[in-house]
Amino acid sequence: MDFKIRPARKEDCKDVSRMIMDLAVFENVADQVKISHEELERDGFCQNPLFECLIAEVPEEHKSKDGFTVVGYALYFYTYSTWKGRSVYLEDLYVMPEFRGNGIGKGLLSKVAEIGKEKQCVRLQLSVLDWNTVAREFYATRGALDLTETEGRHLLRFEQLNMDKLAKGASKERSFD
Ligand SMILES: CC(C)(COP(=O)(O)OP(=O)(O)OC[C@H]1O[C@@H](n2cnc3c(N)ncnc32)[C@H](O)[C@@H]1OP(=O)(O)O)[C@@H](O)C(=O)NCCC(=O)NCCS
Questions:
Q1: Which residues, at least 6 apart from 113, have a Cβ–Cβ distance to it below 8 Å?
Q2: 102 within some domain
Q3: Cα–Cα 20 to 30 A to 56, which of 74, 90, 127, 174?
């Protein structure tokens, strides 16, 4: 199938927002999505963007049954490893179900790797849900290491409440006085 991959533009944020929700539905966590397309526009298309995004687009004649030509996306940003240096983190990779198996996912992933290399990143990292065997296989066949298996790493997060508690502690410690 004919498709092209290009950097997202501000006006793509509605499509990206739609697919973020599709991905969350697929992962059974739709209730967790709080972000709006306006926030994506603000955070991705400002002077110092917090993320970059690639879009997969098909020609009008191949549009989805619901009339969409933007059919996949990869959203990523840059991180830093104290062991290895510049790194790129793939937050989301998604292709609409009716377009899967056409090389779009591979195309998006390869492009993120290419862009990362251009920016001197030495590694590409991501997390994947345990039960998502299709995606785990997709990454494994392309050489991704499973750090949970090889290094026993756990993925941790402070949600807002506990982050607030930590932040309150900081003001009491007066560490910058
Ligand atoms: C994982 C995902 C991005 C792959 O996208 P894709 O466009 O189907 O990927 P490709 O066509 O490049 O490759 C898919 C692989 O599955 C095979 N495949 C064949 N038909 C397929 C189909 N109908 N659906 C899915 N995969 C199919 C392909 O041959 C290919 O195998 P390979 O690894 O041997 O090359 C896509 O399945 C997806 O969006 N899944 C739901 C969201 C998700 O899991 N995202 C990753 C979260 S970290």
A1: 88, 124
A2: yes
A3: 127
Q: Tell how far the Cα of 24 is from the centroid of ligand 1, in angstroms.
A: 17
Predicted TM-score (pTM) above 0.85: yes
What is the total count of domains within the chain? 1
Whether residue 144 has its Cβ less than 6 Å from ligand 1: no
CB-side neighbour CA atoms (13 Å) of 107: 22
- Give the neighbor-by-neighbor strand order of the sheet with 123-125: 4-7, 52-57, 70-81, 85-95, 123-125
Average pLDDT per 10 consecutive residues for the chain, totaling 177 residues: 96 98 96 96 98 98 97 98 97 98 98 98 98 98 97 96 95 60
- Does some domain include residue 162? no
Q: Whose CA is nearest to atom 5 of ligand 1?
A: 105
Ligand 1 pocket residue status of 5, Cβ below 6 Å: no
Q: What is the pLDDT of residue 176?
A: 57
In a domain, 165, yes or no: no
Ligand 1 mean position, distance from CA 107 (Å): 11
The residue written with tokens 């739609």 in the block is 18
Report how far residue 37's alpha carbon sits from residue 13's, in angstroms, rounded to the nearest whole number.
Answer: 5
Ligand 1 binding pocket includes 111 (Cβ within 6 Å): no
